[in-house]
Structures
1.
Amino acid sequence: MKNAQVKATQLRDYVAPAFLVDHVDLTFFLKSEATKVHSKLKIRQNSNDKQPLVLDGDELRLDSVAVDGRELSSDEYQLGEFSLIIPDFPAEGELEVVTYIDPVKNTKLEGLYLSGGNFCTQCEAEGFRRITYYPDRPDVMATYTVTVHADQTSYPILLSNGNLIDQGVSNDGSHWARWDDPFPKPSYLFALVAGDLACYEDGFKTRSGQDVTLKIFVEHGNEDKCAYAMDSLIRSMKWDEERFGLEYDLDIFNIVAVSDFNMGAMENKSLNIFNSKCILASPDTATDMEFERIEAIVAHEYFHNWTGNRVTCRDWFQLSLKEGLTVYRDQEFTADMRSAPVKRIQDVRTLRARQFPEDAGPLSHPIRPESYIEINNFYTSTVYEKGGEVIRMMAELLGRDGFRKGLDLYFNRHDNQAVTCDDFVAAMEDANGADLNHFRLWYSQAGTPEVEANWSYDEKEQSLTLTLDQITAPTPGQKLKQPLLIPFTVGLLGQNGEELPLKLQGENVENASTQRTLRFDREHQTFKFVDLNQHPVPSLNRNFSAPIKLSTKYSTEDLRFLMGHDKDAFSRWDAAQTYASRLMLKMVKSVQDGDVVEFDHQYADALALNIADKSLDPAFLAQILALPSIDYVTEQMEVADFAAVEKVRSVFKVGIAKALFEQFKELYLAGKETVAYSPDSASAGRRALCNAALGYLSVIENDPECLRLVVEQFETADNMTDRMAALSLLADIPGEEREKALVAFEKRYADNALVMDKWFAVQATSSIPNALDEVKKLLSHSAFSYKNPNKVRALIGAFSGANPARFHAEDGEGYRFLADSIIHLNGINPQVASKILAPLGSWRRMNVTHQKMMKAELQRILDTENLSNDVYEIASKSLS
Ligand code: TRP
Ligand code: ZN
């Protein structure tokens, strides 16, 4: 059992660094088991009084320390497990340290490690200290010169940040390259890559005429899977110039794809390192969704060059400063590249699926946390996605131009600085003469606000009174909540679906607009709309203007009406979600009461109207057809009953499929007529619709005709989207066809690790009753490895995080399996281990039997010897 020794870092304890580093000069002699790192630092005192120089270090073997050319004896410094302290360091001086590290043993994938035989680094957040002793905090910014020596045959490519300034060959057959990064940066943006890699090259001319060489480095044989990532990069560079006036600032931009990576990608200055999953794509190996994800992540990392690198974070509590803002920017980019409403729907789906549960559970924290044990645990959906929502709300409040002015001022003020979230908000205020003081609460208050909307129409007065109430439930460590400033966008629909002009009482406007964003900033607030000669249906929180849980007194007629008429695509989709989950919850009650479960035809009728509306974008229609997930429905229950929801959702889906059989068949056959594969947004939308239709057809039991369609698509598809769609449908249908398809897929893609991940995941998320047994068997498949994070996520993560009905199985085996996996992974890669723990923390929502089993597993994890801080923090918070 871990003890109280583990110390939390607190935001309120922040103090400026005692010493700054102006320049870093690193020389690497790369060897698999013993890499020598020679570091020379130009250091300068940053405090008024003399203080010891404290450097961070982790798993380093110290060789020598010298100050201003004189080697120190061992009594002139103190070496701790995680630090090197030099009590008597001059006010200004050069520190020279030689250390050795072991990249082979580095299974944590933080610092310098080997992936597929190539050297690479990952330094965010605190990985640089695993390379050399350094004040490893983002408010210490320095320029870097990096010289890399390595064997020429095994590592022909040598890369680091900035510009290549020199290179050569040494007598012993090794070669070297020297890189210089002129922009001061924090250590977390340092990167180094050495290996035998193929290069895919292109170029970009910035709008001020600078030529930039763009290179993507991949393992040999993958050159043919880089085109889409490169195209995405070029479009990102252009978009950022046009939308935000932001240009690239060096004449070289490199991306390296590696197969062992803890997350999606990393924005190291001019040397982005990516999980190969987020770069490599071809029609035969990647689905449309993966193409879209690659586009978004390439853009995200590129956008970090300004929001993150040129202006960085003062400390890790400010993480959302760069992540929330960059998420907002990549969302806007995708909205411009593809369908804006569909993108919004997808983002809200993700927010509700990941962030809302996080904010309602034991790990709830504000987008700017106040305390952490392990910072790696705070790369959360809250910091990223809710952080993005907070930026979006500011953009909504200030308007597009106002937001742009604020951003311009932010860069003018803070270029080359490490700043805080407050600095960002202040720039927004000052550029607009706005007061965002109340709005700032979004940064410090955790939890999802619950808003209740009520309204009444007064026929005599021809007015509609809208009443809004907000409440945020207490979260761990934050009992008392205050009302937030919520930008609440509304519209009013007339009887024929027309948009009515919105005039608030007391206003004197000529042409009132039909949509407006209300400033809802009190616990209880009333808005009275006048001059309404008919009883309207309100459309609320349009385009999801605020990240809130909205409850309304819509009648089912209202919901059907909105589902058929709302001009706001998001609200139209949301009405369908609300309606469907309401009906399913009603059915769940019948199941629990032992009554017959019946499907309500009216829902199918409402869907039919949407299907018949040929003006709708196919991608949007596919979203309307996608039912709320098991998780989403279960979250609305007092006590979660996954088994009942799974059953009900399936009855519901079959009900729709039977009612609209002809429509789905027609949609499917029409979709099949499309031409050669192209990953563009419109084609992807058509495929999404076609596969949604096939999804409904596939659940009609004992219809050989329908099953044949699925099998045929699997066998004849000329692209991964259609092949995978068919395979995941087959994976839910026990029988010979299922087994045959899985074998065929495995055989076809045995040599492609990324595609095999999909093969693992499709089995891990299958609804077949013995899915867990299958998962356990797959652990010994030759393509599986605990050391590869993608594999762990594809099999273990997918099972526990995306197969709730099997994970919460009555016998508790799902819980036991996850705990066993985490205990095993704790010794290999703590960051990955703690990332898959969250599902065990949801015990409060379960019945007593499940609660007991889940808590026992959490306790078993906590009792593990040598528990990492990563796992300890999440497990202990989950249990408390
Ligand atoms: N900053 C990265 C991003 O948002 C994510 C990141 C943080 C990361 N820590 C990491 C990626 C560790 C890989 C490994 O794009
Ligand atoms: Zn990021």
2.
Amino acid sequence: MEKRAELYAGKAKSVFRTDDPDYFVLMFRDDTSAFDGQKTQQLERKGRVNNLFNAFIMEKLAAAGVPTHFEKVLSANESLVRNLEMLPVECVVRNIAAGSLCKRLGVTEGQELQPPTYELFLKNDALHDPMINESLAETFGWASAEDLAEMKRLTYEVNGVLKQLFLDAGMLLVDYKLEFGQADGKIMLGDEFSPDGCRIWDRETRRKMDKDRFRQDLGDVIETYEEVGRRLGIDFDAI
Ligand code: UDP
């Protein structure tokens, strides 16, 4: 597969075409951003760490029967993925209260959420990714009722797989955001799964081990991502 022109540069990743229109190269850069891009920083090794972290998680999910766009790792900071027609909707599951949920509802950070909650947000930087619901998504054509049902089913299925995976490695999966797209008329998990898009706490001490370290200036951002990965059994020097 030959890498061709850059198609799109996001805040932390770039997408390149290949000589096959069905496949893209996803490049994980060292750029980190938070608060709608207001806070940015280059963090050494981040591209490599998130690329290999994402590959590990996507492979676990695929093995558990979740269809994903991930094909294979191409280099330290690049992976080959299926070209999906992305839906502009972010799906968030929460097992423990944190982040915007606490701000919005005034609930205490750390409160266990049983059953885990499910929220939808519109992917729109200019509008600061507003919270939406299935009715709005359907009416405005962001996703069909069938797509929404499948996205919800898959997002909860991911929770079943990953909650246990992190728990077995001494960590709590607090919350996470997923994005989906379509290929061959099928809904598939797209984008990435890395400590940039989820919250992970140490099981015993509840130390934050995700992008909140960057958002809240807690330090050792990438060192902590690497610790999460090592606990899961990822070798970041494998490539
Ligand atoms: N999240 C994300 N991208 C976004 C918004 C949220 O990856 O544009 C992730 C975030 O890292 C967290 C989860 O989704 O793991 C829930 O985020 P929340 O709604 O609490 O918003 P935040 O506090 O991150 O602004």
